[in-house]
């Protein structure tokens, strides 16, 4: 894993990848996977931005097999429609990267289904998407699901009594909870895949502190966070570097199911992919199952029943 880069990605010819999010990290993921020969489906809300991303990737890598599909993770109807279109057009999916996200809008907002926007998009939307695409993933060749967490998950806590932050909305608290949920989902998905024999390798990753539009888009261009991102740009590593832990998790033969990858330097804020420090709260098996059950109830989505047994967490790093 020493200084692993996108040039270490093995050939992906014949493999199909779905990536949520058309800019920033999602764009970098798509560009790298397409260059390695994968067929890439880039999914996002904005068709014009999606078309621009596809065109740029094709210009950078002529002959790339990349396309855009509309998907709004803040709408269960949109997720359902997207999954049905893929079911009609594709026989399998080999890789799903749950990348798109919303970060710290200053005022509480809701998805089309009434969920708090960050929890509803970052976690519940990807939870529902993975459930919908599971039949196609199980037909894939050594399929993987990579879910994006954040170093903010270290401060996260799952509040089952107020998952939607209706009592007291604090932007970063809600964001940290959503990203902790993404991490716990990735680890629980691996446990359930093992128990049920789905054959899916589920892995979590985080990008450190990267130069994307996530902060300005969420908090606002002129917010304190948005201004810091714009004026202190040199503190943020390039998006292509931030994408490396995700790409490692998605493609490296040595990437472990149930593991968590992030950058290797300055408290995991930048650098090359290594095993990340997993927050203790992410390894609470009881909470992971309760969160899973509540996520099924809220989204109306269900995964095939799997016999559950108590197992040790996959990682326990200091």
Automatic annotation (TrEMBL):
CDD domains: retinol-DH_like_SDR_c_like. It comes from the Bacteria. Belongs to the short-chain dehydrogenases/reductases (SDR) family. InterPro entries: NAD(P)-bd_dom_sf, SDR_fam. It holds the Pfam family adh_short. The keyword Transcription does not apply. GO terms for molecular function: oxidoreductase activity. Keywords: Oxidoreductase. SUPFAM superfamilies: NAD(P)-binding Rossmann-fold domains. Signal peptide: none annotated. This is NADP-dependent 3-hydroxy acid dehydrogenase YdfG. Gene3D superfamilies: NAD(P)-binding Rossmann-like Domain. The keyword Oxidoreductase applies.
């Amino acid at each position: 894993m020493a200084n692993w880069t996108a040039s270490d990605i093995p050939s992906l010819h014949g493999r199909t990848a779905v990536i949520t999010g058309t800019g920033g990290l999602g764009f970098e993921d798509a560009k790298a996977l397409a260059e390695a020969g994968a067929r890439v489906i880039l999914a996002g809300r904005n068709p014009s931005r999606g078309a621009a991303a596809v065109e740029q990737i094709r210009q950078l890598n002529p002959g790339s097999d990349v396309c855009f599909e509309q998907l709004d993770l803040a709408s269960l109807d949109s997720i359902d429609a997207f999954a049905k279109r893929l079911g009609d057009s594709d026989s399998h999916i080999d890789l799903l990267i749950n990348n798109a996200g919303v970060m710290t809008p200053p005022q509480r907002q809701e998805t089309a289904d009434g969920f708090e926007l960050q929890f509803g998009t970052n976690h519940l939307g990807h939870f529902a998407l993975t459930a919908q695409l599971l039949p196609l993933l199980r037909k894939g060749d050594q399929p993987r699901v990579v879910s994006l967490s954040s170093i903010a998950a270290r401060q996260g806590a799952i509040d089952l009594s107020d998952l939607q932050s209706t009592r007291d909305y604090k932007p970063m608290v809600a964001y940290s909870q959503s990203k902790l949920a993404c991490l716990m989902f990735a680890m629980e998905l691996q446990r359930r895949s093992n128990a049920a024999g789905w054959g899916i390798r589920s892995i979590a990753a985080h990008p450190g502190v990267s130069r994307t539009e996530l902060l300005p888009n969420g908090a606002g261009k002129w917010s304190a966070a948005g201004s810091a991102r714009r004026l202190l740009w040199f503190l943020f590593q390039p998006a292509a570097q931030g994408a490396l832990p995700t790409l490692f998790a998605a493609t490296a033969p040595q990437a472990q199911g149930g593991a968590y990858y992030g950058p290797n330097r300055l408290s995991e804020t930048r650098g090359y992919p290594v095993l990340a420090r997993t927050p203790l709260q992410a390894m609470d098996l009881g909470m992971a199952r309760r969160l899973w059950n509540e996520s099924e109830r809220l989204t109306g989505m269900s995964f095939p029943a799997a016999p559950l047994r108590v197992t040790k967490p996959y990682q326990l790093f200091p």
